[in-house]
Amino acid sequence: MASSLNNGVPGTGSGLIVSFGEMLIDFVPTVSGVSLAEAPGFLKAPGGAPANVAIAVSRLGGKAAFVGKLGEDEFGRMLADILEQNGVSGRGITFDQGARTALAFVTLRADGEREFMFYRNPSADMLLRPDELDLELIRSAKVFHYGSISLIVEPCRSAHLKAMEVAKDAGVLLSYDPNLRLPLWPSAEEARTQIMSIWDKAELIKVSDVELDFLTGSDKCDDEAALSLWHPNLKLLLVTLGEKGCRYYTKNFHGEVEGFHVKTVDTTGAGDSFVGALLCKIVDDQSILGDEPRLRHVLKFANACGAITTTKKGAIPALPTETEVLGLLKGA
């Protein structure tokens, strides 16, 4: 493990972080603040939360692999190449001969927030089967990270549950970011039920303030609402608050770490950048999760990663390097 401490931030770990789920292409209007219908043109922006997390880890000097299914098409090959170019192992990728790689059209509103329209009927990522999983790769991980989009339909749901079970049995830390995308679910009720169906398996969970409201039904983003999501297997529960930073909850302590004020252009990938930063700093030393001073340093680093990611368009091009993050921390 790298031993250097910058601003109290531990070095990036060398343990493998495996990210499971969807990778797709976002088509983003060339002009901000317009509806999809009004957009004069679109730019291709590779994305998908689990893939973003894997690249975020790699960009910070960590070791990452992606597990998921892409279409055997131009876009699928392009996405596999992007992972490889960014130092993420593609050993866990399979290609579907019949289904296309998923696409999403994303509008950036004037405030940098997003609206989505998805093309997935069905897309390749939904068709990953349990027998296509590289179980050895999953067992070799120190952290197994996933979202909830892979729970929406079979056979991907069964593949997701199998991968989690194999990781858990191998003693891998389970990390969960539900990454709520309501338009993809049959109903809000189904989304809530399925997101919560695997809740008590994860040891590390990150939700946004909006997801906290959705899952608890509370309109108060407070400690009481957050702690209603606590379960005995959890080591760390995180609630991200956008530019305000994040709140953290463990068995023995809780608190808040302030965010960074930057000029936000596009919030895409900020949460994924935050998660990748956190995971690559605790992968070799999970005792950080129970040590509040060290955890606060790591969360400040993760907040800085998330903030930098909002200053450029698109998720993957905006994911920062360690040097960029330490620059922001030193200037703070």
Tell me the total number of β-strands.
Answer: 13
Structural class: alpha/beta
Order of helices and strands: EEEHEHEEEHEHEHEHHEEEHHH
- In helices, the fraction of residues equals 25-40%
Label this structure with key terms.
332 residues; alpha/beta; nine-stranded mixed beta sheet; four-stranded mixed beta sheet; 10 helices; 13 strands; 22% strand; globular; fructokinase; kinase; Carboh/pur_kinase_PfkB_CS
Draw up the topology in text.
Elements: E1 16-20, E2 24-29, E3 42-47, H1 49-59, E4 63-71, H2 74-85, E5 89-96, E6 103-108, E7 114-119, H3 135-139, E8 143-146, H4 156-169, E9 173-176, H5 188-197, E10 204-208, H6 209-216, H7 223-227, E11 236-240, E12 245-249, E13 254-258, H8 270-282, H9 292-309, H10 322-331
Parallel strand pairs: 1-4, 1-8, 2-6, 4-5, 8-9, 9-10, 10-11
Antiparallel strand pairs: 2-3, 6-7, 11-12, 12-13
Helix pairs in contact: 1-8, 8-9, 9-10
